[in-house]
Design a protein that fits this description.
The chain has no helices and seven strands. The protein is mostly beta strands and 88 residues long.
Length: 88
């Protein structure tokens, strides 16, 4: 039986180089990104920026949750130094 869950993701991230990089975080269910779950931030190298993403989702037995990060500025890699997912 499906149930609704609150999903909270807390991350710390910075680009490996450069400043003012626009990034987006997304929740994905079973490998498919939920576009509307986007959380946005601007990050700079040498300083981790915290981003929190909140989402409510109906889940079934066997479903899995992932967090995806997207650099919306260029092709610079993003270093996620910590990520915590809480499902309740």
């Amino acid at each position: 039986k499906d149930r609704h869950f609150d999903i909270t993701v807390s991350t710390s991230a910075s680009p490996v180089s450069g400043t003012n990089k626009s990034i987006n975080f997304y929740i994905a269910i079973n490998g498919s990104i939920i576009t509307n779950s986007e959380a946005f931030n601007v990050i700079s190298s040498g300083r981790d920026a915290r981003t929190t993403l909140l989402w409510r989702q109906s889940l079934s037995t066997g479903d899995y949750i992932e967090t995806f990060v997207e650099n919306d500025t260029d092709t610079t890699n993003v270093l996620v130094s910590s990520a915590i997912q809480r499902i309740s």
